[in-house]
Description:
The protein is mostly helical. It has 21 helices and 5 strands. Among the domains are: 122-189, Tetratricopeptide repeat domain (Serine Threonine Protein Phosphatase 5, Tetratricopeptide repeat); 315-401 and 433-461, no CATH class. The strands form 2 sheets. It has a 3-stranded antiparallel beta sheet with strand order 4-3-5, with no helix packed on it. A two-stranded antiparallel sheet has the order 1-2. Strand 3 and strand 4 form a beta hairpin. The mean pLDDT is 83.
Amino acid sequence: MIALALIFAVLIGFMIVILYFWGLNPDQVTVALTSDWSLTQPIPIIIFGAILFGLVVGFIFHLISISTHGISHWRVTRKDRRGKEVISSYREGVARLLSGDLKKAHALLQRALDRDPGRIETYLAMASVYEQEGDVAQAITLLHKAKEIEPSSMEVLFKLAATYEAASRESESAKIYEEILAIEGANRKALRSLRDLKMSQGHWQDALDLQKRVIKAVQGSKRHEEEKRKLLYLRYEVAQQALASGVSDQVRSELESILREDAQFAPSRVSLGDAYVQLGRSEDAARVWKEGYQTLNKCVFLSRLEDLYIKEEDPSTLLSFYRSAITEKPADLMLRLFFGRLCLRLEMVDEALEHLYAVESSGVEFPQLHSLLAEAHRRRKRYDNAIGEYQKALGINAHLHLGFVCDKCGEDSEQWMSRCPSCGSWGTFTLANRSLIEGAKPLEIREIHHGEREEWLEEEE
């Protein structure tokens, strides 16, 4: 009421002022609005009309402003409400995904995606759902959509690369890692992932080049020494690849360099001997492998020596080596085992039995030893039925392979390998059941005279 009375009072005052000015200015004024139209009115009326027009226009603009603000506020409120609903659906969907309820997670995340197709977090979570459902192609499609929204998102790019890799699409995975490195050239995770991918593909030179970049990226960190050691392994693999191609002299130099940096790295010693063999330097190969066994006590060196001397039809030199080595280390059961196998290959059955029984007397029980003993008995024409069973069970062959096993993951192989194909470790292949031999001691170390074992057997019968 007070506001209306105040407005009414202002209007009356305004009318009085107009009448007062009208009385003072009774003359009329002609105002041309267009070339053909003009308006003739008293001056107070024209002033009043202009003021009134301005008020009306101002009021109209005020109404428009209020309406626009109201619409904008409604849109913001609606967007906030929708955003909260999307976040709620997304969070619940992720929780369901983590709990293993894929069906519910799929529905909730799809609802969030339908309401807001611009959130890359939802695409990532939905891609994980599709992955676990086994639809990798759809997961990749969603990740590409997320990549279109944020082309430089590291989270999206790493997820896409990992998904390609899981789908055995290594070339596409490598391209994504290269995209990451184009954005961040020193990204450690991308460098390591791409390096590991190249390693799995056998692209050792590419892996070596990437490892050099990794070394630069991790300087001063705790992993620097670990990465330097891996660089050494990759240098070895590149050299090994070149050796297989016949580039022997260059490889020899590189392998010697690797040995100078790490004298305990057994694969480099093995391959250095192989390089010398390719170069026709058998004596140097034998020297490297003998030093390798004396330094590292790895049975692969004994296998290499045996193959070398048998191939060169010079078993006497190898026999001299074994006899001399056993004289120096009579408790080295590994030497006795391999010497026993060599004697079998050379039909020196009595001497083979002497050393194999020395191993057996330590209490060691493993199939390879029994297979060698069985073969020895077969050649002495004893226990024919048992020999036949051993051969069937253990697969005795002409070379009497003992087999190798990875110390880290247990992967087994008939032939020695420098790197385990299962766990990727270098220099871990050793004789199966080697620990049993190394930890055992023979009860009595002495020569068994010819015919003595047969006398024992006759007494037992």
